[in-house]
Amino acid sequence: MTHGQSSSAKAAVIDGKAVAAEITAKVAVETGRLIEAGGLAPGLAVVLVGDDAASQVYVGAKGRKASELGFHSVQHTLPLSTSEAEVLAIVEQLNRDPAIHGILVQLPLPRHIDTSKVIEAIDPAKDVDGFHPINVGRLAIGERDRALVSCTPAGCLLLVKRVLGDDLAGKDALVIGRSNIVGKPMAQLLLQESCTVTVAHSRSRDLPELARKADIIVAAVGRPEMVRGDWVKPGAVIIDVGMNRIPAPERGEGKTRLVGDVAYDEAAAVASAITPVPGGVGPMTIAMLMANTLTAACRAAGKPEPKF
């Protein structure tokens, strides 16, 4: 669950890499079982439009992980000039392909393509990112067993449970950030765990005071080191989704370093457990994508789906 504690921090470090490795090991075993039971290997198709460098890295990592786990892995790499109609045609082709159980269109898409239209074109049963309005709606009404849940919040919840156990009832949870990808689904997941959930954002009044009441803080706002140590309730669990690159002149001219949305050293001196950046939430996102693809394959084959 955790590893080492630095001399300056008393908080346990929540090792997302280790938990993600456990999840993907289970996916590999369950994939073998599904194939033995007469099901198809889980099929994941990734669609990448344009030449965004970060997107290329992410897509490459997803494809490699899928292949490692015994999945059928497909990648459609399309030029920046690809039209919206062409992207929609590929999505439709993948919707009809019985060997594909998960379709992931890498975001952001080029400006001339309507992202909502593309997401809504994906078959909800193959929407392994959990972004389709039907999956979002199923999560909101408590039908998580019929939904595919957005990967980052699903991973965050597992990390919380590694520290606090499966029973989160009655805990005060603060989600900072209200994005459709992380903040909103995170709040829904915590509500379904019977937490008392506050969703805060850039217009919230007295954010530090809201944070000081929280047993669980999920920071997903995209502002470097915004959450300070004196915001943290002693013993709180902190999940830092932020991934911000800031100047690091101490490393040399023009150098940068990655930080989260939480001032790590300050918060770690007060919290009971905290995710590092990098190495916390990031690895969980790809692990949960693989878990969602396996889940979609099990549902398509009418086989029992594993629990993560």
Automatic annotation (TrEMBL):
Biological pathway: One-carbon metabolism; tetrahydrofolate interconversion
Catalytic activity, reaction form: (6R)-5,10-methenyltetrahydrofolate + H2O = (6R)-10-formyltetrahydrofolate + H(+); (6R)-5,10-methylene-5,6,7,8-tetrahydrofolate + NADP(+) = (6R)-5,10-methenyltetrahydrofolate + NADPH
PROSITE patterns, A to Z: THF_DHG_CYH_1, THF_DHG_CYH_2
Tetrahydrofolate dehydrogenase/cyclohydrolase NAD(P)-binding domain span: 150-299
Residue span, Tetrahydrofolate dehydrogenase/cyclohydrolase catalytic domain: 14-129
Chain positions recorded as NADP(+) binding sites: G177, R178, S179
Database matches in Gene3D superfamilies: Leucine Dehydrogenase, chain A, domain 1 (3.40.50.10860), NAD(P)-binding Rossmann-like Domain (3.40.50.720)
Domain of life of the organism encoding this protein: Bacteria
CDD domains: NAD_bind_m-THF_DH_Cyclohyd
Xref: SUPFAM superfamilies: Aminoacid dehydrogenase-like, N-terminal domain, NAD(P)-binding Rossmann-fold domains
Subunit-level organization: Homodimer.
Name of the molecule in the record: Bifunctional protein FolD
Source organism of the structure: Kaistia terrae
UniProt gene name: folD
